[in-house]
Amino acid sequence: MISYLRGKVLKKSRDGLVVEAGGVGYEVLLPGAVAAQLAETVPGGEVALVISYHLLATPSRITPLLVGFVNDVEREFFEHFITVSGIGPKAAARALTLPFARVAQAILEGDVAALTLLPGVGRKRAEEIIHQLKDKVAAAALGRERAEVGPPSRVEVLREAEAVLEQLGYGKAEIAAMMEGLGEAARECETAEEVLARLYARQRETS
Predict the structure, then answer these.
(1) How many CB atoms are closer than 10 A to CB 190?
(2) Degrees to nearest 5, angle at CA 159 with 154 and 162
(3) Where are the chain's structural domains?
(4) Residue 65, class by beta-carbon neighbours within 10 Å (0-12 exposed, 13-18 middle, 19+ buried)?
(5) What are the C-alpha distances in Å from 152 to residues 87, 105, 138, 173?
(6) 116-132: b or e for each residue (b if 16 or more CB lie within 10 Å)?
(7) CA–CA separation, 68 vs 38, rounded Å?
(8) What is the CATH number of domain 4-69?
(9) Which of 20, 32, 55, 205 could form a disulfide with 97 if both were Cys (CB 3.0 to 4.6 A apart)?
(10) Bigger pLDDT: 135 vs 27
(11) Helix, strand, coil % over all residues of the chain, rounded to 5
């Protein structure tokens, strides 16, 4: 199974890349949000991608599908997204045109209208995404299910939440403003998931 790919870009299209690694050309599908981050990538340049690997089965053959991401957080979010009934990896890649942070925020806020902006997502599907992922989205944004020996310190919790927001596409100044707006409530949180949930809840209250 391929989980990471680094090499020279042989070809670039609107929805993906062909990357040469070890003398082999790998076709990689990119969600729109990822393609936007790699807009300056050109054939002949180097690229490093985290890969979500899938096998698509038809009556006549089994075809590998490689979906590329900039970091592990994006891949983990994608892999949570495709657990929603009726959303396969190709449909998810087509749908995720907005920054992952915006999609995560819409799920946490139960914002059906925002999710229907995603290609291929109607109102019923948006409601299903919220229903199935709302309780998981903070953990999905963190990119892993943690099994910790002991509770993290408050400083570690805040740093982890900030790192997640940065990887999801928020700028450092924007993150600092969000944390400042949360104030002392941020220091009451015991997990990074709780910090993220409170941030999104506050944004909903002030919007």
Answers:
(1) 11
(2) 130
(3) 4-69, 72-139, 149-206
(4) middle
(5) 35, 24, 17, 25
(6) bebeebeeebbebbbeb
(7) 11
(8) 2.40.50.140
(9) 32
(10) 27
(11) 50, 20, 30
d(CA 34, CA 94): 11
Tell whether the model's pLDDT for residue 204 goes beyond 80. no
> What is the distance between the alpha carbons of residues 187 and 83, in angstroms, rounded to a whole number?
33
Specify the CATH class of 72-139 in words: mainly alpha
pTM: 0.69
Residue with tokens 């998931």: 193
Tell me the Ramachandran region of residue 161: left when phi exceeds 0, alpha when psi lies from -120 to 50, beta otherwise.
Answer: alpha
Q: Give pairs for 17-20: CB < 8 Å, separation 24+.
A: 17/41, 17/47, 17/49, 17/68, 19/47, 19/49
**CA distance readout (Å), 48 to 53, 61, 160, 166:** 15, 29, 23, 18
Alpha carbon distance 42, 200 (integer Å): 36
